[in-house]
Structures are given as C-alpha cells and as structure tokens.
C-alpha cells in the first residue's frame, strides 16, 4: 500500500500552500524535518553492515513501511485485492501515485462545485477521464473495428472476406503510424535537424534493438485471446508470427555501411523503389499531398533492403497479423492497466501529456520551488565549470573552451509546458472533439493528434520557445515525472511532478535537497557530457568535439572501466557514467573539496555525521521493490536495478568508503574506481 508518511507529506504540503501567510509564520518548519528524520530511520535496517550492503542498510525496511495501520485494512481490503499488481515499486512510483490521486480529485469535481473558473482544457481532460471510467471492460478489439489496415481491406482475424492482394504492409504501417505506432518494421520521426536544431526534418530509420525483441508466444496468445480468438487459433498464429519476429530481429546485425543520407522524397522513391514510400507518406500526411521535393534523412539503408526481402518471403497473412499484434500491444500500453480511477488518470497523462503537464503545474508549481531549483542548478554548473577547468583529461584548450561554452548555454526548464503557455495548450487540443462515452475513439483521436502536431513542426521555419520540447509528446517521457536531458535543446527538463516530498519542499534541509534533487539535476547535466552527449554543441547541433574527446586515452580508460561493471548493472554505459559523475559533482558542490574539522550534526539524527546522512538520503531515494516486468516495461529501462545502482555508485566513490570506514575487501569498495571527468 501507499506509504502512510507520504500521505501525511501530501496533506501537509497542501495545507501549507493554502494556509494564510500570517498563520504560516507560526508553523514551525521543523515539522517536515522531523517527519523526514522519522522516515529515514524507519526505512533503515541497521542490523546490516553498511560496508557489506548499503542498499539493505538504507532501505531494508522500506517495504514494511508500505503497509497501512490495522484500522485501515478492513476498509481498504477490497481495493488492495484489485490493485495488488499496480502498487508503486519505487519512490518515483509513489510520487506518481500521489500525483494521480490529486488529479483524480480535481477531475471528479463538477464545474458547479467550485467558484473558480476552470480553463477550457479541463473539460477535455475530464471527458477523457470519464470515458475511461465508463469502460466495462477494456476491449482491445474495439480499436481494430475502428481502424482497418487500409486500402479497402480488413484485419484477417476479423473478416472472412480478407483479400491478400489488397494488403500493402508499408501502407498499413503508415496508417498506424498516423495513430502513434512507431518502431514496427521501420521508424519514422520528426526531430530537430542534426546541423540546425532550430528546424525539423523527417528521419527514417530501422527500429531500435529493443523494439525488435520478440514479444514471445505467451504475450501474443494473451493478446489474441483478448480479442476473442480461440486457444487453437491463438497458438497456431503465435508460432507463425514468432518465427517471423525472430528473423526480423536478426536483421539488427546488419551494419549501416552507407551511412545517413539526406534526399528528396521523390528521389527516395527511385533510390529504394522496392519500398512504396509515397503511399506510406500519404497515410501519415492525409490532409496534404506529399511534396516530392521535400527532404528527409534516412539511415540504415541496408536494413531497409533486407527488410523488403524478408517480408516478400512471408505470407501477407502473417505480416498483417504481426502488425496487428504490435498495434494491440502498443494500445494496451497506452490505455489503463485496469479500469480504476488512478489508472484512468495515468492513461490520461499518457494520452494528453501537454494538457496534463500544465494541469500538474497548476497544482504543484511554486515560485519558491523554481527559485530553489534554479539556484541549485546554478551551483552544480559552477562546480562542473571548475572540473572542466581542471582538465583532468588534458584536452586541448580549444576543446575545453567548447565544453565550457556548452555548459554556460545549458538551461533548466521546470515543467514540460510553462505556466504562461495556457493559450498554446488550448490551441494544441482545439481541433479534437472528445466524447465522454467513447474511450476508444478518444484514444485514437489523441494519438493521431500528437503525430499530426509533430509533423506540423516541419512547416515552421524556427523552433519557438513553446515548441522547444513539444516534439517529445510521442515519447513516454512526456508523461513521466522523471527528469531528462534534451540533447538537441541543451536543456535539463524537470517535471512538475518532482515538486513533492521527498524530492522538494520549502522546509527540507539543504543536505536533503542536494542529496536527492541535486543528484537528479546533476545526473541530467552530466548526460550533456556522456559518450553521446559530447556529439552535441551548446546549440544542440551534432557538431560537438566528439572525435577529439572520444580519442582521448583517459576518456577511453574511464569508459572501459565502467563497461566492465555493466554485466551486473545498467544496460546503458551513459547511465552509469551519469550516476558516477553526478554523485561526485553534487557531493563536492555541497561539501566542497576540503573536509571541515568539525561539521555540525543534525540534532534529530545525531548518530550520523552530515556526510553519512548525505549518502543515506541519496540511497533512500532509490528504495523500492523491483516487480516482475513485462518485455514492454523493460524496454523503457536503461538504469540498473535500484539496489545495484546505489551500491555500485557508492562503491565507486572513495569519500563514501572513508566516511563509513569500509575496508578494501568489503563489497562497498570497488576493486577499481572509475572516473571520466
């Protein structure tokens, strides 16, 4: 269950925001600190030695604290059974659950129940939410009935009159691309140009390695049963599609020996005539005839040719069903995991990310928070500027200057959309008409809207401030409370959802703020200087000094050191680099470089030194229980499992070992400590 103390935090935070200023002056700010001190100790398992398993030491009792008191159990018993599989498994999950409950309370209110005039966009958010709540049950087959493969044919499993000669797989991919599906057989995206990030281009590419991972026969059978197929049909079809999917996945091994090419659409149709590009683009841009003189950028051309050959060897029936299954899996991920209030809000945030972000900002934005976060980000930049100046990698002065210029240009943005962007948000959703009784149509309309709005960016000559990150609306990141670094914008984006305890509160200690929020900001800042971040300059163009840095021996040694630790940690080298460097950065930002002879202890936690508390607070942000994840859920994870992430990051930091007195042979002492910057 949701941890009780976080509910207390939420209520206290809301009360604090709505209490008159004269009353606030009488409320002791220590209340929050006392609560945090109690929570910190309740999470810990002090029977574990911190030098053997610091994660268990800091988080060993986290799961126990998720249980509510006995007097609440009877009242919540039914709800526990319904939501047992949907409980948050980590701190970000708890934050999102708190946030969803706040939004759900706001959406349940009728317009007559409040004297405040609500923005018009609230009506559309409420219509989507209500249409979701009225689902009984969630039926994926409805989507297939609303959206056919195109070209006058139907899905073969739903029609006995399916005609294979009318099925064109690339046309179907284009039709479903218009409704959000991407990374199936190929990928089409509207992204900032590599040489001028202020304008956009269409990028055609092969799917990512994760996107072509086989779904598995079990997942396919489950989807087929959901749309009313018999077990016999489901088993036979799953075997056929699984065989094709494994052949498709092997195409990932092809090297892109031709490299990326920019060409006009008309020339592409001649360069790769085996693929019907014009019908594909007509399905995506239904309101206008594709301009054959328009340019796009295509990568992995050898894959495209091999894809055509592979598809031609398969039965159209198999290809059509494969596309259908991928579409159903995508829609299942976008919709609610179950028909409940919280899950309908979560689905709303995925379907309407811009409107939801603005609504969240209306509830959580605090000018004091923006000032605090901005000040902390400025401190981190100042410390990293000194690190670049120290030039551990011994780079040439012009290269150091380019890196420093990029750091000076790096910006922080609070919220996916700004509080003064209400007009932009209203305009974005103006043309879409939602129905409080038709969830399936609502979902398809909103998925289509995101794709259409992104392709409209191709018509703008420059990227305005409002459109800075709007091209990310198709990404799951747009509906997440996780911060991110946007490389083409040289921008650290912190969602409004993080303006909650334990990440931020006006009364938390500076140590707590640095250990949690500071680390999150530092992690994203470092992504601007990881193995792919160095490709980008301060303007977000792929013109950074990557060749000079990537060839530096110290840089190579640092990456190799981290690479050796990937077997049991993160799947992404860049994530590990960001963790390792960010912890050092935020620690040195807060404590400085020289140890102080006598640092005052927190009277509420006098048994720990300030530095020990810093490491405990850092570790506890990652407290959680890793659930059994589906293949689709795993596709979004690049970080290590939380326990390994905390242990490896701390074991790599010599100040942690010194502060807790860890000997060389203990688990919390890395055999080799890795560092890049």
From TrEMBL:
<feature type="signal peptide">
    <location>
        <begin position="1"/>
        <end position="20"/>
    </location>
</feature>
<dbReference type="InterPro" id="IPR024079">
    <property type="entry name" value="MetalloPept_cat_dom_sf"/>
</dbReference>
<keyword id="KW-0482">Metalloprotease</keyword>
<dbReference type="InterPro" id="IPR000718">
    <property type="entry name" value="Peptidase_M13"/>
</dbReference>
<keyword id="KW-0645">Protease</keyword>
<protein>
    <submittedName>
        <fullName>Blast:Membrane metallo-endopeptidase-like 1</fullName>
    </submittedName>
</protein>
<dbReference type="GO" id="GO:0046872">
    <property type="term" value="F:metal ion binding"/>
</dbReference>
<dbReference type="InterPro" id="IPR008753">
    <property type="entry name" value="Peptidase_M13_N"/>
</dbReference>
<keyword id="KW-0732">Signal</keyword>
<dbReference type="GO" id="GO:0005886">
    <property type="term" value="C:plasma membrane"/>
</dbReference>
<dbReference type="Pfam" id="PF01431">
    <property type="entry name" value="Peptidase_M13"/>
</dbReference>
<dbReference type="GO" id="GO:0004222">
    <property type="term" value="F:metalloendopeptidase activity"/>
</dbReference>
<dbReference type="InterPro" id="IPR042089">
    <property type="entry name" value="Peptidase_M13_dom_2"/>
</dbReference>
<comment type="similarity">
    <text>Belongs to the peptidase M13 family.</text>
</comment>
<feature type="domain" description="Peptidase M13 C-terminal">
    <location>
        <begin position="485"/>
        <end position="676"/>
    </location>
</feature>
<keyword id="KW-0862">Zinc</keyword>
<keyword id="KW-0378">Hydrolase</keyword>
<feature type="domain" description="Peptidase M13 N-terminal">
    <location>
        <begin position="50"/>
        <end position="416"/>
    </location>
</feature>
<dbReference type="Pfam" id="PF05649">
    <property type="entry name" value="Peptidase_M13_N"/>
</dbReference>
<dbReference type="InterPro" id="IPR018497">
    <property type="entry name" value="Peptidase_M13_C"/>
</dbReference>
<dbReference type="GO" id="GO:0016485">
    <property type="term" value="P:protein processing"/>
</dbReference>
<keyword id="KW-0479">Metal-binding</keyword>
